[in-house]
Amino acid sequence: MGHAEGNRTPMDLTPFVKTTASQFVARQILDLIREGAWKAGDQLPTEKELMEKLAVGRSTVREALQILATLNVVQAAAGQGTFIKAPTSTELFRPDLVAFLIGNSVALELLEAREMIEPHCIRLACIRGTDEDFAAIERTLELHRVANEQGLSIGEYGAQFHIQLAAASHNQVASMFMRSILELLLQRGRRVDHIPHYRQLELDEHRAIFEIVRARDPDRAAEAMLRHIVESAKTYDTGGELL
Q: Options 1.10.287.3510, 1.20.120.530, 3.90.550.10, 1.10.510.10; which CATH number does 105-235 get?
């Protein structure tokens, strides 16, 4: 008898992954959000309340909240507390993606590093980008399209897009940082070529982001980039250590 679509099969078994206390707490909070116990705009309990309910230390609670903030799930407001963010993309709450990121410290660190710099780079690209910058990005997107249609590897074009956006910020330090991060991912081998539907999705998202940059809308561009960074994190090949 065949399995109904969407049902789990024996092939869906995954190996045991040791998690930290902060990862465990982050998963619990995320599960409650998914179940509707907390909704967009709701304020989370205070750190002290979470410490008492979960029987963990302050550092564990803070690390768990930082994980969720990195995943764009919660946001801290100075002097007010931590609030559930309104999801801007259903992908942010996909169990497979979020579980992978919470459970994989290397992937999470790469995600944190990219979130520190890329949304700010793209804001500057909207303001400082030149016609020459945009023409170079357009050429990369076209090469990406052709390679995708021909079934060729597209990893280098995806990385080049991000590097060129950083270069368009005309901040040399930020550009060098992004180049080092993307080259690290390329060296480790992103799995983008082997994820169903992601090849076309990445190209479509890059095109959409570029159109926002060309329209010179910094806020929309930064938000679109943040969503894209989280989604693209599932393509990381993070076996072993970073360095």
A: 1.20.120.530
Chain centroid to Cα 51, Å, comes to: 28
Provide CB contacts within 8 A for 29, sequence distance 6+.
38, 44, 64, 68, 74
Task: Return d(Cα 69, Cα 63) in angstroms, integer.
Answer: 10
Q: What are the DSSP E strand ranges found in 24-174?
A: 74-77, 81-84
Does the pTM surpass 0.70? The reply is no
Q: Of 213, 207, 202, 187, which is closest to residue 121 (Cα–Cα)?
A: 213
Candidates 3.90.1150.10, 3.40.50.300, 3.40.720.10, 1.10.10.10; correct CATH number of 18-93?
1.10.10.10
Q: What is the DSSP letter of 167?
A: H
d(CA 42, CA 37): 10
**How many CA atoms, within 13 angstroms, populate the side-chain half-sphere of residue 71?**
32
The two three-digit tokens of residue 158, written as one number: 């995806």
List b or e across 16-46, with b for residues whose CB sees 16 or more CB atoms inside 10 angstroms.
Answer: eeeeebbbebbbebbeebeeeebeeeeebbe
| 188-205 per-position pLDDT tens digit | 556 666 776 788 989 999
Domain boundaries of the chain, sorted by first residue: 18-93, 105-235
pLDDT digits (tens, 9 = 90+) for 164-196: 999 999 999 989 988 888 777 676 556 666 776
Separation CA 121–CA 168 (nearest Å): 8
The answer to whether 94 touches 198, Cβ cutoff 8 Å, is: no
